[in-house]
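Researcher: Structure prediction, please.
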Amino acid sequence: MRQLHPELRAAIRKAMADPDGAAPFLFDRPESVLARRTHNNLADFVHDVRDELTPERAAGTDAFDVIYLAACYHFARYLHVPEAEKDWNRHACNFLFGIVHALRPEIVPQPLRDHFAEQPPQVVAPYEIVHAVGTALLKASVPAEDRDGTALAMVLFLWARDEARGSASEPPITFNTGTAMTELSELTGPGGAELDPQHLRATGLRFMREAITSLPADDPTRRDMLVTFMRTQARYPADPIPEDSAAAEWSRYMRDGRLDRLDKVIERLRTAVDAPGTGEPERTLRRFELGQTLRMRFEMEGELADLDGSVAELTEALSGPLTDDHRASLHAFLGLSHLDRYATSGDVAHLEAATEAVRHPSIARTAASPAHTQRLTNLAAVLTARFDVYGDIAELDEAVSHLEYAVSATPPGQHDRPVMLIKLAVALWKRGTHAARDADIDAAESILRQVAGEPSDTGPNQQLARLELGQLLRTRGSSRRAVRDLAEAAAQSRTTALAPSQDIRTRLASAAQWAVSCVALGDLEQARTAFGVALSDLLPKLTGRSLGRASQEVRLREASSLANVAATMEIAAGRPREALIRLEQGRGVLLAQGLQLRGRHDDLKAASPELADRYERVCEELVAPRRGPEQRRASAAEFDRLVAEIRALPGFGHFHRQPDWARLRKAAAHGPVAVINVSSLSCDALLLHRRSGRTVVEVVPLSGVTSKDVDRRADDLRTAVTKLVTPGTTSGEKYAQDQVLKRTLRWLGEEIVGPVLSRLGLDRPVGPGEALPRLWWCPTGALSLLPLHAALLEGTGRPGSVYAHDRVVSSYAPTLGALLHARETPAPEAGRTSLAAVAVDAGDTYPRLAALDDELTATRQLSGPRTELRDADATPEAVLAALRTHTHAHLACHGVRDPDAPSRSRLLLHGGDLTLRELAAERLRNAEFAYLSACHSAAPGKELADEIISVASAFQLCGYRQVIGSLWTVEDAMGPLLAHEVYRLMDAPGTPDVAHALHRAIGKLREHERYNEPFFWASVVHSGP
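Model: Predicted structure follows.
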């Protein structure tokens, strides 16, 4: 220990004799007490007597004088320092005076002397005193950037840490040691090894991390330590990432959005995982990285196989040899993959699986990890999604808290910090909207502007930030009628929609937002441009042929009703032709893609046989089932190359171009087509027909119809027809539901069908001997679930009432393009027809089909070769084989419709189901007519209603030009009666077409004593030319 200067020792002794009048420092000026040099000297004195800091060792020594001097000093500092520094000066004062009071209580100055008389100070271990003195010194030195004071604090902590080994104070002392080291690293330039800033920083962060991990998760001091540690860590750049690592490629991808980076990483990681020579834990860590990268690619490209692969790889990796830190990160990212599954399916079981993963105990145990902010971000993403489902504001508050902490604890240059900021902004926006807190919404806007950067910044994060910013501005602008917000929403969205980026999903959403914002502003010309970008350019890319069917359907949900709104805008601008084009561009997208792969191209074969053969081969590849994503990507790329080559041929410039007016007008060649556009803005009928030798489009505003009306009527009708056929329904309930059905038919007649027929001049009876005119219906949205052909025009629904069936021969067309494709496909030559007749009961699970034999008998009226498959012979494989070899098909069986996942609709056969996806994989060259005597076979799903996904449309897709199907379930015994008449007429001399045959057969059914009610006959519809 250094010797005290005699004068100083004398002053101390004098003060001891008069503690209330001469105690050191208590009567000095504040600036003298708070001087850095004074503070450093006193702390240095304490360090000198560190081994004497007990009453036993200090008694009668110079150390006691130092202890008294330091105690008085910290008392004086306590009186003058800011509030933030008082606690540790008080601790130091009390701990030091504890020794003084134990030996000579009378020399303690007032008012402490009286206070200690009532509550004697505790005598603590020397390391506690040194820790308190060091902490008071550190809190004063850091703001003053006092290198010497900070270094001395570190020295004090290091001694205290060694002495406190195994005690409850070791974690906080170790943490403060690390804090002092990191602070000192910023005040130290490059130099000797002892004060190397990088070494100090690394050691300091390690000490802080060790302290946190040594404490139980529920320790009250751990949270404060963690906050300080993460914010300290955020001040420094992350450890360098090896250039050839997956993380380095992810970082580059997050900045430039190049998808080929992810492709290369996936290929490299698959090789490493599959290589026999890869050991552990490397194999497990590469599997972990593979699962993460597959999820990233899914979020950009939408291939569900990537998402399934992500979940599988991450789940498999959990069984490998992992550190607790890696295990925590793995659970957090598995949670994101489950969250994506929830987003694609709507199944809350996936949301609960995500919640379980992101709350795994290993995440809390490893909160000091550099990766903890990523884990908190994933947790917050799940909590935000849970708020959307359950509405619990506490979960949204927790998400905001985690994200604010994660952002503050992440270095500004870290590649995933912008993602944290975007998620924070979204959570704040949701909370602000929910709780009417403008401050939250303003904060969200500010954050999004920060991330969005300049218009020239086109990385994935910048684009996503602009999308969210545009949505915030549009929503706020619409609610407040703020033109400035709407105008900026349009500008932000336009920038992203037109960006040269591979993030098609974000660009399409931005284009839609751009368009809607322009509509709200009344700028229809710019809205037209925006809708054109969305529907002509981006939508085909969003649902590219490289994706599997299920993946395409998921992505199409993001463009729901976009074409309908675009058509409404074109109608408002006086451009009905363009309205039809918009509907063709945005409806039946998958059907149009599929029909392109099945067309006959005799003209191409004549122009270039080699090119035609190559094109045929790639079409076969794209239709083939059970092909993996990589095979589909290769075939899709080849398809695009071939189309480009074909378009270069003379006369083939329009090959597979999107439909234009020159093509669509041909749909009216054989009679008018009524396209009924249902959108959230308005509902209109677009009547495509011939007038005075020209094809025209007339608009009939349906002012009494809204999209909500249509949805409600469709739900009411579905409920009514279900109860009417359900065993056990009382007669009173049946009457009530029959009235619902008839009210729906009357509403259709008054609001939609009546105005259409009136405008076309088809609302009156035809003259004696005249044939009824044809009319094709092309409804959109939920209107496709309603029987327009059976709309009630006059009367109450009793016998003698007039229905649309009495005025026109109705057929349905999913799209104009599908109708034209069917017309352009040659029908089988006369005398070359043949029939595959299938009749199968589904067993006890479903109601028994007692009339199957009668229905098979009815089909025998059609002449020509036939194959009959009954019950056990009617397996899915046998039925498909029969369909491939016959022109006509009759299937009498149960049908199952899944309204929320229409592609899961199916026909129930023996030993299995014939699914829509199996049908979509067929290319039936000679198919002509399918009669689907199965419930719901013509009813599309409620989800993706404008994709017109039904069993009937699947038969059209695989090659059938004409299809008869059913919108709902009716009595089994009616089937043979209707089929008998249809086939009798089809085989009669002067055979009418299928539409007329069905129309006459229904007319006869309406004369039947039992089946004259519309519940029976209105269920059956015809689709085709």
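Model: Residues 731-760 form the longest helix (30 residues).
Researcher: Thanks, that helps.
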